[in-house]
Structure of Acyl-CoA dehydrogenase:
Amino acid sequence: MDFTFTEEQQAAAEAARAVFGGVAPDGVPSPSLTPGAVADDFDRALWARLAGSDLLSLVLDPEYGGSGLDAIALCLVLRESAKVLARVPLLENSAAAVTVQAHGSEALRHELLTRAGRGEVVLTVAAHGRSGHDPAELAVTARREADGTWVLDGVQTAVPWAHNADFVVVPATTTAPGPDAASAAGVPGTGDLTGAGRVVLALVPRGHEGVVLAEQISTTGERLAEVRLESARIAGRYVVDADGAWEGLRELLTTGTCALALGLGEAVLRMTGDYTGKREQFGYPLASFQAVAVQAADRYIDLRAMEATLWQAAWRIGSGASGALPTAGDVAVAKIWASEGVRRVVQTAQHLHGGFGADVDYPLHRYHAWAKHLELSLGPAAAHEEALGDLLAAHPLA
């Protein structure tokens, strides 16, 4: 079998390396030394460069000014972004745009996608539920009115870039319809929504009435938000209802998080190799000691496992190929390796750097903070092991 990337995928990765090449990960103060968030906004200048290089429209169809590439190409770009800890909502914006493209109405697609690909509209996703441990789709309820308007109530925590994005994509579970639901069900473009228990995706505009943002600070020092929806009324054209829309969005977000973990881990292992190759003890480089070499080799194996499982998951998402397990199984395996692997990589790096690794003038501490965030984001390894066990029980392998 041929496991090489296509020319288009390789071109996307090369363009990403060119854009991220000048970004310095040590240019932001340590979160532990900053009283609040490290910045109020994401890196707008970098965002503009990504748009200018057509990397924001990478996975959009040519109809919307995109390149029509797949999840593998997106993950290649995300991998490069994590090597420099790029402070941009690339994953959330791309995943939300792909979901709107696949499941949104024609009017919504034409309103948002071209502008999102040019960086003029920024999308993010509320994917962590009320506490970060419960399903995101159960944290918010959605009730449709007779005029087609949706009323949202609930709380989503740790929403990235919510203070700066133009729209937050919020998964919500429908409640029992009101007395006029029968007439509301006939609203064009909304589908058969008269029943309860369906999951819809609402695109909530920034500053919308009934939406309250409470500031939260992530492990990385970035500004997050607790999004409180208090009878927020969302126009029907901004609500996406389709079977599998939320599941597909969550799988793409999780796989993209694995790509970020891989890129971060590769950068950290390279930093560790450079340091141990130059630092001497007893007249010899640290890298020449067997104990050091064995630890570095183990982390290299972790990264290769993270890479193999990532591309398997991204390929399943992009191709729609069938397998013994649903795509969610490949995504769970990738996230298990990403969570465990990136944790081991940064811990070994801290150990081999010694006291130098704790120096806040050296960027390793920031990589460690980002690694912890990625490890737990969208579920730690244990949560995905449980999900994988459930899938195996429901789909026994021959």
In short: The domain at 245-394 is CATH 1.20.140.10 (Butyryl-CoA Dehydrogenase, subunit A; domain 3). The CA atoms of residues 74 and 85 lie 16 Å apart.
